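Example record used in the benchmark description.
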Amino acid sequence: MNNLMLSFSGADLARLRTLVNAVGKEIALAPGAAPTAESQGPQTALDMAWSSLVEMLDLGGAPQMRECPECGRQCTVGATRCGNCWSRLPAAA
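Model output (structure tokens):
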């Protein structure tokens, strides 16, 4: 297998997490994708491939965010400056 090295900006990573969740929900709703109470069949090939892809991406959880007191945009908790207005942010609580 190739060693695939991907890097995403914070905004791209957030969009990727949203898309992964949306596609996962659609796969779960697809006919025959999830076992019903009557049938406890094996996962579909699509579901197994999707699970493998999500595991390989290893996106982790979304970072904790806080609001910039100057412009109101969202910044990560550990940020020292706002990525939008570059104002110095107070120390995180």
